[in-house]
Amino acid sequence: MTSPKHGKAGIRSTKGHPGGVRGALRPWSQAAVGLASALAASGAVAQETAGAEPRKPAEDHYVLPTVQVVGESEAESYNTQESSLTRLPKPLVDTPQTVTVVPEKLIEEQNATTVRDALRNVSGITISAGEGGRQGDNFILRGFSAQTDVSRDGVRDLGWYTRDTFNIGGVEVFFGPSSVLFGRGSTGGAINLATKKPVKRSFQELSLTGGTAPWGRVEVDVNQVITDSIQVRVNGTGQLSKVAGRDLAEQNRAGFAPSIRFELSKNTTLDVDYLYQREDSFPDYGHPYFNGYPVSVTLGVPRSAIYGVQGSDTERVNAHIGTARFQHRFGNGLTLTDTLRYGGVDRFSRPTSPRGLAPTDAPTTIGRERYQTDTDNTNLINQVDVRGEFQTAFLKHTANAGLELAWETRDQLRFNLTATDLTTGPNLPADLFDPVPSPDLSPVNKVFSTSNQTDQRTVGVYASDQIELTRFLEVLGSVRFDSFKTKYSSVNNANVTTRLENTDTFFNWRAGLVFHPLEKTSLYAMYGTSANPSAEAGTLPTGTESLEPEKNNIFEVGAKADLLDERLGLSAAFFRLDKTNARVPNTDPNGPPQILAGQQRVEGFNFGAGGLILERWRLIANYTFMDSEIREHTNEYLKGQQLPNTPKHSISLWTTVEVIDKLTLGGGAVYQDVTVVNNPTSAAQALNKVPNFWRFDAFASYAVGPVQLQLNVNNLTNELYYAQYYSGQAVPAETRSASLTGRVRF
Fold this sequence. Notes:
Blueprint: E1 10-13, H1 27-49, E2 67-70, H2 72-75, E3 99-103, H3 104-109, H4 115-118, E4 125-127, E5 139-141, E6 144-145, E7 150-152, E8 155-156, E9 168-175, H5 179-182, E10 189-195, E11 203-211, E12 215-227, E13 230-243, E14 246-250, E15 253-265, E16 268-281, E17 289-290, E18 293-294, H6 295-298, E19 314-331, E20 334-350, E21 352-358, E22 365-392, E23 395-419, E24 428-431, E25 444-468, E26 473-491, E27 497-515, E28 521-532, E29 550-563, E30 568-585, E31 594-614, E32 617-632, E33 649-660, E34 663-672, E35 675-676, E36 689-690, E37 693-704, E38 707-714, E39 722-725, E40 730-732, E41 737-745
């Protein structure tokens, strides 16, 4: 038996699927259903003519839920029509916002093992490199950090770690200020991870992957129907991996995610799930810059060169996330969802940052700046959502309202690993071109640097209503109010303790118009806001505790369409995003260190397509143009500069064709323009960039009965480009690599 997400023509239950009935029947399917209906009708007429009693289901027989007959191609389309968010009740084609979804099928075809890998399919996103002990997922959406704007099933997912995809059923990207949906932050957008849930069909899947880095990975996905009202699903993974073309770097992870669904009654369900992810890797902090670009470009430093210390550098993470979700359908379109989550992420990191090129005019050595941090994050969050559809006079409402209560803590301890008896300074020196992986560490001492503790409480209330004025026109109104309280204490290297408190209250809103010239099409205009409090990332720097939150707004106009019986989705939008009161240094020495006097803007447009072009041809593609600018700043030299991590042009493409039965071929391309990584404060400081690049990938799969073989070749041309970067360093991406996956489904 095949999994619901795979296989040839089959039956998809409309119960338990977040989107309900999706798509129209293909012509042959419609004909088959029509014929079946006609035969059933004729049989009923014959019975009645003969005076027989109409047939009724036996009392002890299970009555199947409503089903929809679909073909393989339609079941695996890249066109996702609805979000998994309970507080976004309208289909995406009717939602006045750019939303890009990376579906599970695409993640599987690309063998994308992390959310970072999956987001290569979305233009307008870059990834920041490790900084100050940070690592893990630090996504930049439309030029603004979204490290704290990642949600899992609609609930904020905190912690600095690399998120694996073994339990991910899709990645949803919401562009533009989205505080009405997610609360604080969400400046350039937010990311939601839709996890795999139990379904009413038993299946088992095992996959084994081997790659040339070398690397190996195993994944297990088992769904078991215990009774008609209880289903259990277990996902697991284990991975041991080098990184192709990067000496020493490792990405080793393991994960376990059981979940269970109880149907307490016909209209009531309870889902309970738990996620554990373990990481034990060698962190890669890449290459420094020289003459405006990374040294692997300007000086010819081998892309494989890593300045970390073998046997000492490490990144160890333990993430635990437990969730319970209660849902009750009252009837008449009214649904209550209550989600309770407790999560904890413990992260120990001992990386090496490349700092201090010498000599300055023609460098041959680099300093190894080393430190270790121990960071513990916990969160306890409860979200209550009520959504429903109702009529007032001639107006049809699709509304939702909710309450969010959150308690978050963060503890961090940092030590500097300082070489105190060297004439070269506190950093161990290394050959820039051929660094020794195991230097003498005897001169290194562990010196206390800082510690800090954060306690944060959030109360958020939100409501939204999308009203159909006519069959052609809808209006949307959304509001959210947040109270965000932070208590923060820090101890510096002189053992001086600083205690700070801050309570921010902010109100955000969104308004939109949606016009439907044809069915399954929309033209829209939207204006929305968001807010960035000073303590958004879990720290509260001195001098910012009295500042109001930064405020952002976006104006977007666009068009969307679901075509070819909803198998193909198209979208296009023009947007303008403004940060109206950015935090900037104060030039008045008698005033606070920072003031809200900056202005930043990102504007541009994007296009997207995803779904089935023809019966056997799938495509997902998107393009984003961004023009960014610092419009106001207390430093005149900064005015007019681009925002870092905001490439003007970015493209993503993936396509597959089933050339014959069971054999599918495909590939993809990613392009990114030259990208600025810093903002020089004077002419004496260099403007650093990473170069533009094209990356090409290839894919092939062949199925033999329940066994599928899949070949992936990444970076076909062996392009030197940088997967992560910020002002301090850029991390070279993997070289050409290949992997072979064997997948068994039964």
